[in-house]
Amino acid sequence: MKREIIKTADGSTTIYLPQWQENYHSKHGAIQEAYHVFVKHGLHLFRTKPHLNILEIGFGTGLNCLITYAENLSLTQKITYHGIEAYPVLEAEVGKMNYTDLIDIPFGEIVFKELHDSPWEVDYQLSKNENFILKKRQLFFNQVNDLNTFDLIYFDAFGFRVQPELWTTSIFKSMYDALRKNGVLVTYSAKGSVRRAMIEVGFNVEKLPGPPGKREMLRAIKTIN
After folding, report:
1. CA-to-CA separations, 76 to 16, 34, 79, 80, 180, in angstroms, rounded
2. pLDDT at 75
């Protein structure tokens, strides 16, 4: 499938798939969307937790991981970050992402390269931050079978329009099972069928103001173990 590198409205880059007319991140601002959805309404809920386990559904360009790493630099908590991706981004594409030009991170270029160069399927401690452990896992999303493991899920799959099979009750049941009690899932989507699928598997779901270009987003909480 053809892939193009484009700039989004906040100046940050993303990958565009012309065949699907779909972007890896919002055309209204890749970095803005990532901070709003996953950091502001997800990560910041757990600032006081000493050890946080995060699961990302759709590791992609590594943007969500990078901003989580950047936020972690000002905290003392330890983060273990699992990134699920069936089709890893190519090295040439990684080199065209400009996130470290726009996000102030010490040794940013080194860190971003390390996120992508680190081995798959192993716990990897990033060289510039002893509190951040990354494990990249090359799986399809329906192969996730973790149980009571994660505190927070970043659900950043391609949109319902192009991959509706990623937004079903069976997928959200596996997400529910993967979370610990009081765990949280955040996503940019606010589609009614997505919200209903989350509720059906047991989540308490709330609508929140969306990032630039979107009116609403969803946050789901597992209140029963």
Report:
1. 36, 22, 9, 13, 22
2. 82
